[in-house]
Here is the input.
Amino acid sequence: MSRVAELTSQLQVADSKAVHFNAECRALAKRLTLAEKSRDMLTEEVKLANQNVSRLQDELTTTKRSYEDQLSMMSDHLCSMNETLTKQREEIDTLKMSSKGNSKKNKGR
Here is the structure.
């Protein structure tokens, strides 16, 4: 009889452990499912973030190119304005010299 009681006790312990392990497996399966869903969501977020980075890099490249073109045009315009200013100064200096020469001639008469 003691052997039956011992086996019954061992069976109850094994059954208890089996119930516990079953519950633990279910909990782990649930955690795994949640982790996989979380991973999928994060993977999608990373994908969207990479697309956003790519779009912003393209936009930056376009903006940089536009600014460089504008700067080049402004530099060309500035050079042109400097040339015009230099020519005008030369003309003014020439006219002043000519005017001084004419006023000396008129004084000499």
Summary: Helices lie at 2-108. The mean pLDDT is 93. DSSP finds one helix and no strands in the chain.
